[in-house]
Amino acid sequence: MEELEREERRLVFRRFTYDDAWALGSLLVETARQRQAPVAIDIHRAGQQLFHAALPGSTPDNDAWIARKRRVVERYGSASYLVGARFRAKGTTFEESSRLDPDTFAAHGGSFPITVEGAGVIGTVTVSGLPQLQDHRLVVQALEEFLSKQAE
Fold first, then answer.
1. What are the two backbone dihedrals, phi and then psi, of residue 76, each rounded to the nearest 5 degrees?
2. Is 117:37 a contact under the CB 8 Å cutoff?
3. CA separation (Å) from 104 to 64, 67, 68, 144?
């Protein structure tokens, strides 16, 4: 859990524009295509979808998972995988103890907060189609690469 919390502290944007959403989403698409990953990708900011892509092998079900994972990030302000891990660390599950509808919320890996310095969490970037840890790692890898380029 400590590593997941460090990721959130480290992966912070100075700004996040429409162009940034397009560039980050495009980077995720390129990375997923290289891996032949059957994923759907979504970026939201302040309730508006700024980017969406569905790659070969993804299904409408992936869009439903994206919405459920995104809602967890919007509600808790933390990565969906981290939220699920926090419940597991308490000896329970998100589904058992959150008191939230599992048809609306899913604390499974793949959705990460878009945090901007001085503003906090302003959006989400979400991937669905792989096992939850792989979804999470795909998003984290793309954020690391994008932010390192943005810092140059």
1. -100, -15
2. no
3. 9, 8, 5, 29
pLDDT number for residue 90:
96
The string of pLDDT tens digits covering residues 32-48 is: 999 999 999 999 999 99
Helix (H) or strand (E) run with residue 111 in it: strand 111-116
Q: Are 109 and 136 in contact (CB under 8 A)?
A: yes
Q: Report whether 107 contacts 87 (CB < 8 A).
A: yes
Whole-angstrom Cα distance, residue 125 to residue 39? 13
pLDDT, tens digit, for every residue of 131-149?
Answer: 999 999 999 999 999 999 9
Q: Give the distance, in angstroms, between the CA of residue 144 and the centroid of all CA atoms in the same chain.
A: 13
Is 82 in contact with 139 (CB distance < 8 Å)?
no
- Would you call 10 exposed, middle or buried from its count of C-beta atoms within 10 A (0-12, 13-18, 19+)? exposed
- Structural domains in the chain? 2-151 (3.30.450.150)
Task: Give the confidence band of 151 by pLDDT, cuts at 50, 70, 90.
Answer: confident
| 131 torsion bin: left (phi>0), alpha (psi -120 to 50), beta (else) | beta
